[in-house]
Fold this protein.
Amino acid sequence: YCKTVVIVQDNLDICPNTGSFGKITCELKTNRGDLTNPVEVQLYNGANMMKTTSGGPYTFLDLPLQASYVVKPLRNDNPLNGVSTKDITVIQRHILGKELITDPYILLAADVNNSRSVTASDIAEMRRLILGIIPEFRVVKSWTFVPSAYKFADPSNPFDAPREQNVNFGVTKETKDVPFVAVKMGDVTQDARASNLNAGKTRTNGSLLFEIDEKNLSGGGTYKVDFKSSDFVNIIGYQFTLKFDASALSFEGIEAGVLNTNESNFGLNRLNQGIITTSWDAQEGTSFGKNEVLFSIILRANKNVKMSQVLAINSEVTNAEAYNFASDVEDVKLGVRTDRGVIAGEVFELYQNEPNPFAKQTVISYRLPEASAVKLTIYDVTGKVVRVYSLNGQKGFNSYTVNKSELNNANGVLYYQLDAAHN
């Protein structure tokens, strides 16, 4: 007898691929068709998580056949992405029956407290996030995912929709495509960025100017600052950050005006930083005359200053924007009423870079009260200077594109600082 080896080959691919491996691919898109990234996709076999992948493409290879798996996507970054007071106005009209939300994915987005319904509690949760009172939704993650193959039995009650997909392999090698619809929680107007690689910017149409009276403040005195507007016409909502000089002023309280605001419309958790956030909405387009007091803030002066020098509207915490009944997004600015008329004040602002994170380049935007030379400095996490740019800034809005190739191979988290004259 003898021992030998017989090698059997299927060169014509006639035999079934029994004993080979399976493959799962997972495409994640919004219901508008935008690819969603970054997402962590988990693969389970029973109760045990087998693999995870992130960043895309979302593919699982070499999976044993004759087995069952569960695919579950997760994403929990930038909860404010796409969430604004404009979304609150849409939810409010739905709750009141004025304009019902019929898209099941948008209804899922509105249920930010996971109560399996859309109520005023969802509005309250969203407003806390917008005002910077909470850093993220307290019950749900910033995104949820529904298998694309799922059919809603009742689109008006979509809250039982699954958030994972079962996959079963037989004895034959095959590829299973398991797509999901990505839903950004809180974003019922569907203007969230689905991918950090393609950052967008909200376009504005016109502006809403809040106006205060110029005053000379004496140290130790208490003053009521009335906020009025000459162009508060057909407005359904607004939001902004009110910045005050915390060394010159102390916050004493808020009084309602014709807008009937209350404590829920203001974020007061950053007073020590000189920051008040506000968000207001109405059921219908609302208009008021130029001399009507919208709301008032009570401040105590710690030293002698001018009102116009210690107050500004910006987007440091809550983005400054307003919405009219035509759903246009408007800028929000602060003007000062003087004997010469209303003077619109420009403020110094440094904005979040977009996109963030970035692969090849990112745009850093800033606003200047007057044209001046500026210095943009980029640091690494240790505080080491990576790059310094000397720029000439114009009055108003400016932006500068930073290429990664210019950052001396720096990786990880980077910080930037902008220095300008008198700022």
Remarks:
- The chain has four helices and 29 strands.
- The first helix runs from residue 85 to 95.
- The two ends are 94 Å apart (CA to CA).
- Residues 245 and 310 are 5 Å apart (CA to CA).
